[in-house]
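Reopening closed ticket. The problem is back. First fold of the pair:
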Amino acid sequence: MQNLQLSCLSTEQNQHLQASLSRLHRVAQHARAQDVRLLVDAEYTFINPALSLLVAALAMRWNSSEEEGPWVWNTYQAYLKDTHERLERDAKAAHEAGLAFGVKLVRGAYLDKERSVTQLHGKEDCTQPDYEATSRSYSRCLELMLRRVSNHGPRCHLMVASHNEESIRQATRRMWELGIPLDGPVCFGQLLGMCDHVSLALGQAGYMVYKSIPYGCLEEVIPYLIRRAQENRSVLQGARREQALLSQELWRRLLGRKA
């Protein structure tokens, strides 16, 4: 990769930056060789601009091919007020640059921390006021991306990363209305062990479904799972429904065996 030097950084910091870019380039190169998409997760707002810059640099290298679909994707958090505007801007910029565009759309998992940091520094709150507003934001972003997928085909891909059943119903309904094929550039993602009944129903209907498996030590994985539960308040209600469905199926099988 080219030797990047930023005037705002010291010589040592520029060396660290160059080393980071080289490592990321090797990761993307290996992922491409293995035919695996590279989805970069989002973080806190004070980190996201740097993450987006790195993703943009990787996208310029790996999403400019004429081959089908983007290889490097970015994540967009609907609980931030400016997400719809940024998503629209980035999608347009990628199209004008001749790049494929890949989006993982989430609600967001750092609401409490973002608000505490905002209050601490006396800044304007960048997050949606409540869960309902976040859901409306997610719905708008979902509609934006599904329309772009419909218009730009294999050059624009979307992962509907949600445990919210209403968001999933909106996605499947609009895919049918827009003529987006089930096995095409839209997929769904849920955590393993969360909303498995939704994942199963999607898979049986022919949609592409990915189950995310958190991996790491307990000190890292447990906080991650807690944030996911906070992000999706409907998960707890869905878990109760899933338990009822499993219980119902278990009794059906037991009664069937007795018969």
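Second fold of the pair, where the issue appears:
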Amino acid sequence: MTVGQEQGRTPEKRRRVRKSPEERRVEITQAAVRLIGEKGYYGTSLKDVAEAVGMSQPGLLHYIGNKEGLLSMVLLDSYDVLGSPEEFMRSGLPGSDPERLLFPAYLRYLVRCNARRRELVRLFIILESEAFGPGHPLHGYFENRPADIWKRYSAFPWVIPPEMGEWGKTMEPVVRRCGEAMDGIQIRWMHRPPVDLYDEWLEFEKLIFPSPMWDGYR
């Protein structure tokens, strides 16, 4: 082959790297978490998310269906599935034994998980604030969240102090206060200077699960 012939060859087009649906969903979720965390749900458009992941809007809609589907992907399919009691029971950490499952120990595990996903926690805070309005697609989700959390946690065989009686009769207000305290600490964690999320939770744990009653059950 002569030099002229070689120079005259049409360069081979680069093959586009095809990503699996799972990889695409991860990219979309990460972009949406960042954008909604910065701009809120109403301030983020599908165009913003599509551009962030290098897709067309029709391509994006193929994965999420609509803008509400985007919320489901980033919150229900991501935030709520991480740091679950099931994960804790598989962790082998103190208090995770299914035969002696300790609720305060699980909450410490959950706080450690949240400390590693700051952007996702920020997103949760932004969405919860926006969802006060009844027209927000997550209004019902946040309104029902305390009851849903209580129902979910009640499905596990937590071991609590005898003085507390039965889980189903006495622990609902305790679980509610844990959620309220955790939400407040996370908001403070977002401000400057930030608190240490885990250390701050330990201080609240002493108040919610006081000694000597909860000694040996934390």
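Update: turned out to be a display glitch only; the data is intact. The radius of gyration is 23 Å. The CA atoms of residues 79 and 102 lie 22 Å apart. Please close again.
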